[in-house]
Amino acid sequence: MTKLVLTYRMSHNWNVNSFLKEYQRLLQRAIDEISENTTWREKKVTHRYSVGSRNYHYYETTRLIPYFPQSNEFKRELRNKLLKDWPFAKHYIDSAIKTAYSILKSWRGNYLKGKRKRAKPVVKRKFVRVKTTLMKVEGSRIRITVKPREEYLELDFSKEWFYERVKDWKVGELIIRENDVLLTFSKEVEFSGRIKIGIDSNLTSLDIFHPEKGWIRVDLSELHRIAETYDRIIDGLKSVQRKAPKRIGVLLKKYWTRRRNRIEDYLNKLAVQLSREFPDAVFVFEDLNKFKMLQNGSRKFNRKLSRATWKKIVGKLSYRVPVEFVNPAYTSSTCPVCGSWLESRNGRVVCHNCGFEADRQFVGSFNVFVRGLGVALSGAELDDLLPNEPRGELNVMKPKSVVRVDLNGGRFTHVPP
């Protein structure tokens, strides 16, 4: 069984501005207290900088590393401090402490990467994270406690567009914002011993979405380099074939054979290494029709597309692992948040309806994965949900790993993304 979590956005007309401001101040106080008790220790670390294509120079330096207080005693004292003058339900204190640690953990990761300074984070967004202990769920109706026995917020998602898709799912934690609320739903899905993974087939990569490992990009640039190199040689020979048709004909046959053999060797190793990397997975591919794609492209694009070997990859892989196909229509242009059309901009896609933005190939692989499950597409904007919070299977991430086919070994080689 694998747990799936989906997140949907629902508008509300509640007057919660003062509630949001108080929680914002509470959260900032929690961050301030944790920051004041953070210890900084010197540690030798290794850094690198690029000195050419895939070459790096490594050097050691000493850095100050932050370590947050984690003892139960500190957390109890922090909770008691935050409870003073807090006018709402006590469980929001626990929510704020957990959220503060999430924000600081994200800040620490960016600080170690050199993307943040030592200054503590400042809470700029107004929101309230609602734990399940503060909610009463009856079917599609949810009652949220603001002040026990005094003030409650109620909502009913039975008339929302996503109701039929999640009516049997378990309701998780909520995030209240000024004009809307983010609802999370979870469900255990049976994969019959195999996990399904979605694969978006592109000209120079296979982008894989794995529900546990995240986004993995298989770099196929070497495959296309092989094809382009031999195509260049073959095109040059064809241009002078009239001058010596017999001799050039022999050379053409020689280079066509080399091209075929090198590509076949690459594809065989790709299929072997994919099956070893994901031995218990069902591979879900788009049912692509290259002929229809050729009709709409330019001459240069059609030439690149003609080098794509998607069907051969699937054919060789199908001997080793289960393979399924889904409808490829709009997998890279459908918004997983609201279902609207996505506009493509330099490899990224943007939804003008809800503001969602992500890498086009990530969205494609995720949508293929979800279509393979037969589950509705969903997700939320990255900045709307905090690190380590329930955000569903759609995590707008950079590739967790980029791998290349190892032409001398039996496993993928991992390379910097």
UniProtKB/TrEMBL annotation:
Top-level division of the source organism's lineage: Archaea
Cited InterPro entries: Cas12f1-like_TNB
Coiled-coil intervals, chain numbering: none
Name of one Pfam family that matches: Cas12f1-like_TNB
Protein name: Probable transposase
Gene Ontology terms, MF aspect: DNA binding
Keywords: DNA-binding
Domain Cas12f1-like TNB: 319-368
